[in-house]
Structures are given as C-alpha cells and as structure tokens.
Amino acid sequence: MNRGATEDQIGAVTSKIQSFGLDANISRGTERTVIGAIGDERKLDPEMFDSLSGVEYSMHIVKQYKIVSRESHRQDSIIDVGGIPVGGTQVQVIGGPCSVETQEQMDSAAQHVGAAGCKLMRGGAFKPRTSPYTFQGNGEEGLKMFRKAADKYKLRIVTELMDARMLDTFLRYDVDVIQIGTRSMQNFELLKEVGRINKPVILKRGMSATVSEWLMAAEYIAAGGNHNIIFCERGIRTFETAYRNVMDVTCIPVLKKETHLPVIVDPSHAGGKAWMVPALARAAIAAGADGLLVETHPNPCEAWCDADQALNPQEFQDLMGSLRGIAEVIGRNL
Amino acid sequence: MNRGATEDQIGAVTSKIQSFGLDANISRGTERTVIGAIGDERKLDPEMFDSLSGVEYSMHIVKQYKIVSRESHRQDSIIDVGGIPVGGTQVQVIGGPCSVETQEQMDSAAQHVGAAGCKLMRGGAFKPRTSPYTFQGNGEEGLKMFRKAADKYKLRIVTELMDARMLDTFLRYDVDVIQIGTRSMQNFELLKEVGRINKPVILKRGMSATVSEWLMAAEYIAAGGNHNIIFCERGIRTFETAYRNVMDVTCIPVLKKETHLPVIVDPSHAGGKAWMVPALARAAIAAGADGLLVETHPNPCEAWCDADQALNPQEFQDLMGSLRGIAEVIGRNL
Amino acid sequence: MNRGATEDQIGAVTSKIQSFGLDANISRGTERTVIGAIGDERKLDPEMFDSLSGVEYSMHIVKQYKIVSRESHRQDSIIDVGGIPVGGTQVQVIGGPCSVETQEQMDSAAQHVGAAGCKLMRGGAFKPRTSPYTFQGNGEEGLKMFRKAADKYKLRIVTELMDARMLDTFLRYDVDVIQIGTRSMQNFELLKEVGRINKPVILKRGMSATVSEWLMAAEYIAAGGNHNIIFCERGIRTFETAYRNVMDVTCIPVLKKETHLPVIVDPSHAGGKAWMVPALARAAIAAGADGLLVETHPNPCEAWCDADQALNPQEFQDLMGSLRGIAEVIGRNL
Amino acid sequence: MNRGATEDQIGAVTSKIQSFGLDANISRGTERTVIGAIGDERKLDPEMFDSLSGVEYSMHIVKQYKIVSRESHRQDSIIDVGGIPVGGTQVQVIGGPCSVETQEQMDSAAQHVGAAGCKLMRGGAFKPRTSPYTFQGNGEEGLKMFRKAADKYKLRIVTELMDARMLDTFLRYDVDVIQIGTRSMQNFELLKEVGRINKPVILKRGMSATVSEWLMAAEYIAAGGNHNIIFCERGIRTFETAYRNVMDVTCIPVLKKETHLPVIVDPSHAGGKAWMVPALARAAIAAGADGLLVETHPNPCEAWCDADQALNPQEFQDLMGSLRGIAEVIGRNL
Predict the structure, then answer these.
(1) Which of A43, A278, B11, C115 is the one with CA 20 to 30 A from C24?
(2) Where in chain C are all domains bearing CATH 3.20.20.70?
(3) How many angstroms separate the Cα of C8 from the Cα of each of C11, C12, C14, D124?
(4) Has domain B70-329 been given CATH number 3.20.20.70?
(5) Distance (Å) from the C-alpha of residue A282 to the closest C-alpha of chain D?
C-alpha cells in the first residue's frame, strides 16, 4: 500500500482478496502496510489490485507455471524421441542445414550428420524470413525430401512448424520433433495446437522473451496435455551490434533450477557466424545444456540461406570431438 | 573485404555479384577494398557473401522494403475506414476497453467513447495472454456484442486477429479494422492472409522489433495487395523495470520519413498504468502521431483485464480536450 | 522462503532481522512463507538474506532514496539558477552548441540563443569522446570564452564536469550549472564532490541507467548537502539501431511522481539528428518536462562535433514558437 | 547519398573528403550513389558528412582502434603480472572476496585462494555502491590489509581504482593489477591516468558497452603508452530480470579476433548468485577465456557485501577441478 493508505483502502483490498476465497495477512510496517493473499494466488491477477486506490503495487509470490515447474516434478524429465533420449546424462547434438534445398543436398547432409555421431537431424522446410522477397522454403516437398534422407541414415527429424494449418501435414510425414521458432514462442493458438498432440516439441525462446514468459509459453503446451517439451535457447536481442544475438548461457542453470524439462542451445543462430559456433557450442555444453542444434551443410558457400553460419562437414566433426571431451569432464557423455 | 584480401578473393566476390546480373564497383582504399553491387541489390542476400573467403562483412545499401517506402510514394497515404480517414490532418483517437466483457459494458463504453468525439472504437474479443490460466476473451460471442454496441453509436470497430483460421469470422461480423498484435508482428502466415483481403490493418510493433523489421512486416501485407496499413507503436522492451514498456516517440518522425503510411500510438499498453496515459498520449500527438489507441472503460476497477491501465470516462474526456489543443498547435485537428 | 523451508530456516531469517533492531512479521501461505521486516529497512541489504539457506529471494519494499523522494518533500522544488527558476510553471530551454570552438562562434551562438528567448546557454569545454583520437574540447580556454560570450548576453551557463580535479576551475569561472554527463552518472566520487558545493547540478541519466539507479545517483549528491539537482533524460540504449538512442518520455511522469526535483530532456543527444529534434522536443514538453537542453549552432555544417544534430538559428527559433504553444495548452509558459 | 542526390551535393561531399587529404571514389548505382574516402579515414568523423545536404548516412569502414587491434599485432599478447603470465596457454583464476573486511578475513581468504592453486587474488578496498547509505569499502586501510595477506601467501593483488586522485596510494601499496570497474569504463580521465603508468590494467566492460566502445576505451589506455591491458567481461544489461546480468560469452571469440590482448570473465558479477557461478565459469573457459575473476569468501553468509554471490572455500576448490578438465580439453592448462 502507499504510505498513508487509509483503513478503508486497506479494507477494500482485504475484501477483494477474500471475495476470491483467499485469506489476507496484514503486516503494518513503520512506513508501509503490506497485504498478503493466502491460498492459491494463481486465481488473482495483480492488475486487479493495482487499480484500487491506496495500492502502490502488487505482485505474485508464487510462480505462475505449474506443470513445467521443478516444484511439481523433482526429477529431470527425459524426452523420448523415437527411442532416442533428450535429457539425462546423454548429450544430443542435432545437426543439419538451415533449409531443405534438394534431395541430393539432404542425402549428403544426412550422411555427414550421421557419420559425426548424431541421432537427430535438423532442417527447415518452411522458413520464417524477414523479407517477403527472399526464399521461403520448399514447403511440403521439403518435408518429403527430408524424411527420405533421414530414413536412409536412421535419423530422427526436427523441423519448424509456423502455421497450425500445416500440423496434419507434419504428422503425415511423421516429423519426430516439432520446432516452434523464436517468432512463434507467443503464438498462443499454435502452442495450444501442439499441446493437443503427442509429439516432442522444441520450444525456442522468443528473441526478447524473459525466462518467465518462456516457461509460461511451455505451460500453454503442457496445459493441453503434451509434456514432451524441450527448451531451446537461441540468443537474445540486446544493444550489441557486433554479433546477431547474445547467447544467454545463464538461462541454462536457471532453467535447470526452475523446470524438470531438458534445455538445448542453438549456437548457430545465436552468433550468426560459423567461426563463432565452436566456442559457443562448447560454452553451452560446459554450462550444462542437454544438447545443441547446430547448422552444418555439405557446402556452406552454396547454401540458400544463412550460408555464413553453417559449419562444413569437417568443422562439424572436429567440434563433436571437443564437445565429447567437455561432456565427460562434467560427467556426461556424447 | 578483409585487410590483405587477395585478388582471387576479390575476383570471387565480383563474379558472384555478376552471376546475379549486377555490376561490381571496386574501390581500393589504403587499408580496405570495398566492392559495391550496382543494380537491383534486393536480389542479393548479404549472407551469400559473408561466407566467401576474404569478406569482412557485407550489407545492403538500398532498403529492403518497397511498396511501403516513402520513396515509392511521396505523399502521405490516408486510409479510409468506412468513410473515416486515418492519416492526413485529422487526428483519430480510438478509445475502448481492453476486452469485450458483456453487452452492457460494451454499450456503456460505446456511448462514452462516442460522446468524447471518437469515430472508432477498440475492444478485444480474442486476447493473447501470457498465462494459459487467465481469461482468454469472449471469442465470437464478443465480436457480436462489440458489433452491436458500435452500430448503435455509429462507431467503426478495431479488434485483434490472432489466428488465420478466424479471419472468415472477422469478415462475417464486418470488423472495420483488423489489428495485428505485438506478438504476431512476425507471424508471417497471418500477415500473408490479411494481405489478401481489402480491409484496413493496424500493425502493432513487435515488443522488440526494429523499425526496419516492422517496415518489412508491413511489406509482407502490402506484397499481397493490401496497402491499407496503419503502424501502431505500443512501447518497446528495454532494461527499465519501473514501467511496462518504453514508449518510443522517436519512431514517429522516423516512420514519417521512411513510409507514406499513417502512424498511431498506444500509450495505454506502453506505460501500463492509467496515470501515465495522459502524459504519453500528449507526447505522441506532439511528436506527430496520426492517432491513438487508448484504453477506457466505464468502470476500470471492475475491468476483467488490464484494469490498472484504463481511463474512466471523465479522464478520457479530459484527455481529449488537451489533445485537441496540442493538435492545433502543430496544425492538425481532432 | 522456498517451498518447504524449515522452521529452523525461518527462525534464522527472523533472528537476523531482529539483530538489526527490526521486528519480523511471518505470513504463512499455502505454498510459501513470506517474512517481512518492520522498521527502517534501509539498514538491511537484501543480499544479506539471499545467502541464508531456505531463502528464495528478498527485496526492499521501501525505496532506497530519501532526500530526493516525493515522499520527503511533497511540493515541486524550484531550482534557482542565478535568479532564473528551473521547475515550476515556467519551461526553460537551454540552447547552445555541442562544444566551445572559438570566441566568435560563442558570441554568435549566445546572441541567437538569447534572441530566441533563452535565459540559459549550454556548451562543452571538456568533451567526453569515444575515441582518444578525436577533438577533446578546448578545456579551460573554452570556459573563458563561454563565460565571456554568455556575460555579454546575460545568459547563465551550463557545462559538463568530467573530473573532480577540475571543480575549482569551474568555480573560478563561475559556471552557473554543473552538468554531470551520462557516462559519469555513477562516478560516485564525482557525485560526492558536487554534493559538497552549492551550485545547481544537471544530472544526466546514464545511457542504460534505470530510473531507480538515477534517483540513487541524485541521492549521492543530496546526501552531501547539495539539493539543487535537475534530472536530465537524454535517451536510453536499446536494441534499436535506426537512431542513436530512444528518448524515454515515460520517465517524465514517473520522475514527477517519485521526486520533487525538476526534470528536463535533451532531445538532441537522444535522437542524434537535427531533423528529429523538433518532434522530440515537442513530445518532451507535452509529457510535462520542465525544460530542454537543445543543441543549436550558428552554422551546423561547420561544427567541430555532433554537427548533424545541431539546429541552425532559424530552426531553433521556429521550434521555440511551437514549444510555447504546447506549454500553454498544458498550463505552463515559456 | 539519398536517392535523387544532385551533382552539386555529390561534389560537396567529394570536396570535403579531399579537404582532409583523402581521395574520393564515386560509385553510381541504379538507386543510390555511394562515395568512399580513400586514405586514413580515422581523420574523418561520419557526423561531419551527415549534416551535408543529400547525404543519407555515412559510416567508418576501417575500425577506430589501432594499438589494441589484432591487425596491428598478430600474435596473442601475454601480460606479465609480477612474473605471472595472463594470456597464452595458461588459464589464470583470480579468486577472492568482494570487499576487504578485516585482516583476519583477508588472511583466511588468501590462504584458501592460494591453496586452490591461484596466483592472483582479488578484493575491493574502494567499493562503488548504488546507494550512498551502504558500506563503501575500507579505503587505504583495506589496501594495507590486502597487501599484507597477499604477501604472506605470495599472491599478486587485483583491486579497483575509482578515482584518479587515489592512484599514488595504489602505487604506494604496489597494487599488481589495477581494475577499472564497469561504471568507469568510459571515465576517460581515469583511463588516461592509468595509461601513463606501467602497471597491468583489467578493464571491465561497461554494463551496456558495445564491444567496439570497449575496444576504444582500451585504446585510451594504450594511447597513453600502457599496453598491459586485460579485458574483463562481467555480464551485460538486458531486458531479462531473472538474473542480474547476462554473461556474454560471444564476446570472447569476437575479442580474440579483434584484439591481441587477453580476455577474462567475471562469472560472479554476471550471474549474481553463487549457485550459478560454476556453470558460468565453465562456459567462459570453454569459450576460450584466458582467466576468471571469481568471488570466494571464507564464510559467505557473513560477507559485508554481495554475500549471495561468493563461493565458499570448498565450492571454490571443486570448481577449480572442473575448470582444469575443461582447459585441458581445449589445449590449455590451469
């Protein structure tokens, strides 16, 4: 309450709390009176109280997310992707090109991704692009090529869903992990749709989403019944212009504390340049990430998009080696 | 090019530019060589060049947006909303509650919004909410109530579309202006859909979208054929925690320079508190905005959402008075 | 406290609060226990408690600033600058060039600044520059030229102090208002020095300082005995690259609520381009600012620094006219 | 140049470039004309050109920093701190408490820091604090205690200088490494002072400084003749409120590319909580940092400041073990 709040004002707040079936605890300090709501405060919205007179501000003490919270589920969850575990002691690197270009490119990529030891592969058939005039992905044709190439090398596939109307198509091609991109993290209708199916979902962090908003976005999926959620940090937007985004390693230990779900990192989109990827990938694993999404292309100079951030097959394989070493230092394996 | 780039590297860049049908201009400085592409560089993607060896970085000189740019259309565009102009010398204030609650509330709101001199009214039937456990709007029933209330007072209606699958419903209730919310600014599939129809669109700025990304999002709509676009600044996300967002007044003169389309401001969502709204609303008009989206509710303390940011009818009417004064000082009317 | 905090942990926190002479209020909710400290909590540091086991987090309820707070002094303070009031109903525009270049330039600038109706003039003798290789100001010689030019036109002078060791020199030239620049907002030793003298101080906001940190910086000055403090917003750093800074108009009503001291705005440094200045200046006054710092130069194209952000004499005079109109609409004069 | 710039406008820019002794290269595209300056463009300031008519914008192609740049010195520099190398294959961890409290605390800290294998120790005698009402450090008395404790265990000392007037005192106690804190990164007068002496300097990144501004701040020191500079990343300010700062690992590979000087990281101030420090410390080393500044205290719960971010002796020693493992994986030792 404001300094000098009256008894009537205090009473009004107390009544409003009680009208929702909670109790009120009144603590009178020397300068301020603080009123606490006792009960399930998720029913209350702070803004209901901010508009009452005499209220300085109001806030939640209990977190708004439930199903995804570590409090509701103490052990680490391991997500099963067609028999491949994400989470737990095993670290999973998901390699592949930015976009599905041709069958030949995908076959070649699947071959080198598998050879480097990966069990999952990434690739975009539908691409969110800032400009309407640039390549938007191969669409359904791309899904078909991706599925075919991955099957040949026994890889599970990860690809981005941008539009709820395409979900059936994704299921038809048996996409193993549905990726929700950074621009869709708060596309609540899309989150509700993937919450209704039983497929693992990689939920990328919005480019300027707080950890709390990200957890709430996951809660949207979980609330629909789908608890197979993998968080993916991909760099946040800051004032810095020397690189595309700032990869936020701090979110890794913080998420590990707040949620039982696995956390992976995309160092390729974070840095935006292939030469930065090995340093960032190593940092993510050292900080405790459960896996990575890494762009790698059979021939980066000829990639149709994000050419400057893909590793070539040799760089990718070298990176896998040093990641294996770091994983072992912290008691994991890759 | 990097310092010490070789002639072969310079040649490779030059060839790549020429392979897209453009010419190359090579400028050799004392420390760096700069290569310029001459022709329609929108065909080129800087990342195609960043991956070539010897390249330090590459960038666009020409802007990526065309239809929405001031260069393509010198005069200010005036958007016609059922006979009401947005843009030009007239300033339009669009008042109304955060969400459609009941028919009675909407009737009362429409009455006081119209009485204050507004021609357009706002209200949300579908609400994007951070938590899946809070009120999500009245949906189609809300559209019906809104339409009915607005018709009684001859007001045009503005309401948010979150899902392409609801577009037909919006058209059925003859929504006058479709609002694309901050979280949907880069929902490219949704932008393409509203690009195909012939209805005015208010495009809110993403909460951390650059002006350039915002113009590109508008270009997605325009590229589909719908040029009836109104930009709406609603506060950006920064490090500051004392208020919800930072209302960016600088974007007003900058957009006026870059685009011919109207620019309005939402001071209610920017500040997040009703007591800040008059100062912010006045600042927006003084900076040259073509209008405002202002939350006002017949009884803010009982609003179902964002209760603490709505003006009551008297506050709203008082604000209209001072805005009229400011509009006149800068040669406009309201 | 964490969910599941033990009675011993609750007891330890309670004891620690009591050891500082305060009382503890314990509120046991269904999911969390909240412990409040009752008494002058400025003696406590939240981090003292965050390190105790069982504590989830701790925070201040009462604000850390006292002397500068609106709670300690209800009326608006008016700062007396050699007989000229800053704060109150009068709006003060402080015009002048970025840097003191020559006597001739300063005489010419003082003439046009005075002619436009200003009572105070700005100009830098010591310039903080990002690069060590660019012009760093004329130093003491510049102060002398500035004083001479200002005296001729009966203007008070405002100039930046970067180094405590130069304070005596500033006093010798009888600088009327000492400006603390954005990079010095948390130069605590410098703040303490200007806190010991009895001269008005303009305290610019750090380029990414929160309002709370800014108020605390002012509290450093006030704690030394100098209460003649004027806040100056000059744009904050964000992700946006289309303009130098984002002028934060929201801080104006917020500061007016939190502090009794005057608030001015520098639209020139905020936007960084002369063509943006009129819109930003009008927005600042409309939002309730008590004045402005505006760069104006007799011949902007020949200015030695920040050439692209200075208004020429005619533009400056035109701006004064429209500002006067806006001031009147909101019950002030200029 | 703007679209439609006239020949006269192009001529004026060309003349201005030539008046500084450089040549101009004119490249006429289909939509824009681009003018390049050929010669040492550090003499030119883009803002000199932005104010000319017909100019859209101007920018530097060559970087503004020279002495600190990798281009001027290809090999990694190793800074000699009283016989201990910073930079090169050896990784240095600098442990110690936030502030110097008592002789006993410092003796105890020096003992455990040395026992863990460190060669350098940190500790603050002068503390920059946001509030004037909190503990400001023990000052000169603190330096004396620190020196004494460090000498007993043969440790080099690192401590923060906030005020140029204290430099002589620092030299008198033979401080081995002078730390310039985040709030002083652009205190140019202080940078010039430490540029005149021959002591290693740790230059912390400003809390919202770009990499480019940071390199320019180092250039201020280097331009004075002192090339013994160590960069220290300590977390940047963003929109995220779940942790104090965001530790920017991306700056490590970027600085390694741009400068020959060593780069260390302070994971304690970045995260702000002791439980986050191990993950962040490991990430920094994995990303290629040359060392760390880590807060550790004999008894964190009784620390006088930042109690919640210091590791206890056991945690510190455990961390050293895992860091050693990671260093070895990437070919370094600790």
Answers:
(1) A43
(2) 70-329
(3) 5, 6, 10, 33
(4) yes
(5) 5
